[in-house]
Specification:
Largest sheet: 6 strands, mixed
Number of domains: 2
CATH superfamily of the largest domain: GHMP Kinase, N-terminal domain
Organism: Sus scrofa (Pig)
Order of helices and strands: EEHEHEHHEEEEHEEHEEEEHEEH
CATH topology of the largest domain: Ribosomal Protein S5, domain 2
Shape: elongated
Main location: cytoplasm
CATH class of the largest domain: Alpha Beta
CATH architecture of the largest domain: 2-Layer Sandwich
Distance between the termini: 87 Å
Subcellular location: Cytoplasm; Nucleus, Nucleolus
Pfam families: RNase_PH, RNase_PH_C
Protein name: Exosome complex component RRP43
Number of strands: 16
Radius of gyration: 31 Å
Strand content: 25-35%
Helix content: 10-25%
Length: about 375
């Protein structure tokens, strides 16, 4: 049976496009006639372009509002006139691997299988290798009203830390020590998963993790915060607010806390023996004595065997387990956090610790460069 074609299909196309067979790069061939027509943009009357083989290669759509054609039409007279500027649309050219497992639609239907196809090729959907970290940036002194502050970004994950120093009475069981009080805030601002109100489970876990890092790493000797034994001590309130949660929040919080503590300057305080009041000299300030530099490195476990570093939020959700290792500059283990999930062999755990040592050197180098640039020349 002979196919009946609309009359407008026989019209010569105003634009022609082609793709070289076997070439991965699409090329376009625009004739002199089309170049002249391209200069006639505006409300001039245009001749309707035909949809020959060249037009089909350029993905021209008869129902597109850009060309002013009525949507849903199946046949047009060859002399149809257009009264809207004609724009040739090449935006729908997509390079999709022939393997259907890489189609974006599969990510919605079967996200785990979608990730597995990438992991088998030793890469991830965002283009990183399995052992590659996202871009890390740090900015200190971001909050002018705080005694110390920092802003850290791990890819899209963004955490800001502000530290406020206040006076307080030392604890009765340790009269020569001060306080460091961390608090992690995961508000609806950073992710749709969180709600307003009291801290959720994930926020409480993160706050306790930061408290454990402070205690185990001895980043600051609490004796250094004591002003007068049994009478007065410094209380450092460390508020860590997540602005954007895209996974690996523990690494970002640890880095932000360390950078903010290094930025803290406390004024000189003396106790007047006659009045028993504190005298504060705001003109003379000093930095805290940072004794260690703990750096956290997080891993996600896929299929109980495969390890990836610096997981995104989606990767954390699909993983069978996560692990966070905190190391200091001497290669000592400060803290290890594993909230359930699949187990790890001794060899895998040792591999994680080795990678954490390497990551510590990178972060420490970045932080040294930041604070070196802040010193007056």
């Amino acid at each position: 049976m002979q196919e009946t074609r609309p009359a407008w299909l026989s019209s010569p196309p105003l634009y022609s496009a082609f793709q070289i067979p076997g070439s991965r790069k699409a090329q376009t061939n625009i004739s002199v006639e089309s170049a002249a027509a391209e200069q006639l943009r505006g409300p001039e009357v245009r001749r309707y372009p035909g949809a020959g083989a060249g037009a089909r290669a350029g993905r021209w759509r008869p129902g597109s509002s850009e060309c002013g054609c009525p949507a849903g039409g199946s046949s047009y007279p060859s002399g149809l006139q257009l009264h809207l500027p004609f724009r040739w649309d090449f935006s729908h050219r997509e390079t999709i691997p022939p393997d259907s497992h890489f189609l974006p639609s599969r990510k919605t239907v079967e996200p785990l299988e979608y990730y597995r196809r990438f992991l088998k090729e030793n890469c991830r959907p965002d283009g990183r290798e399995l052992g590659e970290f996202r871009t890390t940036t740090v900015n200190v002194g971001s909050i002018g009203t705080a005694d110390g502050s920092s802003l850290v970004k791990l890819g899209n994950t963004t955490v800001i830390c502000g530290i406020k120093a206040e006076f307080g009475a030392p604890p009765t069981d340790a009269p020569d020590k001060g306080y460091i009080v961390p608090n992690v805030d995961l508000s609806p601002l950073c992710s749709w998963r969180f709600r307003s109100g009291p801290p959720g489970e994930e926020a409480q876990v993160a706050s306790q993790f930061i408290a454990d890092v402070i205690e185990n790493s001895q980043i600051i000797q609490k004796e250094d915060l004591c002003i007068s034994p049994g009478k007065l001590a410094w209380v450092l309130y460390c508020d860590l607010i997540c602005l954007n949660h895209d996974g690996n929040i523990l690494d970002a919080c640890t880095f932000a806390l360390l950078a903010a503590l290094k930025n803290v300057q406390l004024p000189e305080v003396n106790i007047n023996e006659e009045t028993a009041l504190a005298e504060v000299n705001l003109k003379k300030k000093s930095y805290l004595n940072i004794r260690t530099h703990p750096v956290a490195t997080s891993f996600a476990v896929f299929d109980d065997t495969l390890l990836i570093v610096d997981p995104t939020e989606e990767e954390e959700h699909l993983a069978t387990g996560t692990l966070t290792v905190v190391m200091d500059e001497e290669g000592k283990l400060c803290c290890l956090h594993k909230p359930g999930g699949s187990g790890l062999t001794g060899a895998k755990l040792q591999d994680c610790m080795s990678r954490a040592v390497t990551r510590h050197k990178e972060v420490k180098k970045l932080m040294d460069e930041v604070f070196k640039s802040m010193k007056p020349k």
